Amino acid sequence: MSVSLVELWLPILLSGLFAWIASALIHMVIKYHNTDYKKLKDEEGISGAIEKSEEDVGFYTLPHCADFNEMNDPAVQARFKKGPVAIVTIMQKGLPPMGKLLTQQFIFFVLGSLFVAAVACMTLTKGAVAVDIFQLLFLVGFFGFGWASIPYSIWFGHPWLVTIKYLIDALIYAAVIAATFTWLWPAAV
What we know:
Layout: H1 9-30, H2 43-53, E1 58-62, H3 74-82, E2 86-90, H4 98-123, H5 130-145, H6 150-155, H7 160-184
Antiparallel strand pairs: 1-2
Helix pairs in contact: 1-4, 1-7, 4-5, 5-7
């Protein structure tokens, strides 16, 4: 007998909550992401230059090319060779709004759990074998929470070590979500 998303409301919410707690532990207790970002040697000077430029909140590249065809221009090629080459995110001034960010992160995990549940509903039945539930949902959870981080190292210069840490995070989130669904999976009637 098939399983509906409505029947999985509790594992969806709880696995989202448990993954959110795992994320909090990773970032606030274990703290292996603390080394992901480095301090600029002239932080004050660079900060002053960005402030002076009065750029809006946004995502910027340096040197900037609106189209890859511009890379054929010798002047653009010279700017790339001279450097620096950077991607800069300018955010709102002030301390991060932690309440808003933590809420968004919780919603992210609940929606991720909802997508995992949707795959489960299409492939598993009530009373499915625990190992089958765990293996399928672990794999789906890993791809859902981790795989998309790889292009950030390919295209945006994120160090591969940082991407590996995000993949480790994804393994943890996938295990938490798969275990929660396995624990609360509906029995056969």
